[in-house]
Amino acid sequence: MNCKKIVWQYILRGLNEKFWDNKVKDIPVFLKDLGYDRLGEFQFIGNTGINSILLSKDAGLSTKEMIGVLAHEMTHQWVFQNHGCEVEEHGEEWMAEIRKIGFDEENLDGLTFCDDDLYAYLMTRHDEMLEHDERNAE
Ligand SMILES: [Zn+2]
User: Fold this and answer.
1) What is the pTM of this model?
2) Mean of the per-residue pLDDT values for the chain?
3) pLDDT tens-digit readout, 67-114
């Protein structure tokens, strides 16, 4: 295990490719202290603003667990894009989508979502995107 810094925006893009055919808007992901019992948050700004996703950096989560939390929050953005902001936060639209991407109904927080295969895929894509962006920045 190395301790390189993960660019969470690339993880979002990897999940977006794999589960949503890049149809989820590329909204910013921020790491923030949210307290031990809040794992993540989808911030809804409104039709004219840019939504964002916060991931807890002080809840003691592993990278794999954070990936699942990110997928949970991305599903909120997907529902927002397709159904607006009048539907329930974890209502039927959200539930249908979270099932479709393979969430276990007993673990809707996402902590058990990311298995070894998904993790390996996302890290490979992460490194490819990082290399690509570094090359273009030179
Ligand atoms: Zn939620």
Assistant:
1) 0.93
2) 93
3) 999 999 999 999 999 998 889 999 999 999 999 999 999 999 999 999
Least Cα distance to 27 among 54, 52, 61 occurs for 52
Which domains occur in the chain, in start order? 8-131 (3.30.2010)
Ligand 1 mean position, distance from CA 71 (Å): 10
Q: What is the pLDDT of residues 114-138, one digit of tens each?
A: 999 999 999 999 999 999 998 888 7
In 3D space, the residue among 53, 88, 45 whose CA is nearest the CA of residue 71 turns out to be 53
Closest among 105, 51, 110, 38 to 80, alpha carbons compared: 51
| Cα 41 to averaged position of ligand 1 atoms, centre (Å) | 7
- Phi (first) and psi of residue 57, to 5 degrees: -105, 0
Give yes or no for a contact between 126 and 11, defined as CB atoms under 8 angstroms apart: yes
What's the 52 CA to ligand 1 centre distance in angstroms?
13
Expressed in angstroms and rounded, the spacing between residue 134 Cα and the centre of ligand 1 is 33
126 CA to middle of ligand 1, Å?
24
Distance of CA 54 from the midpoint of ligand 1 (Å): 12
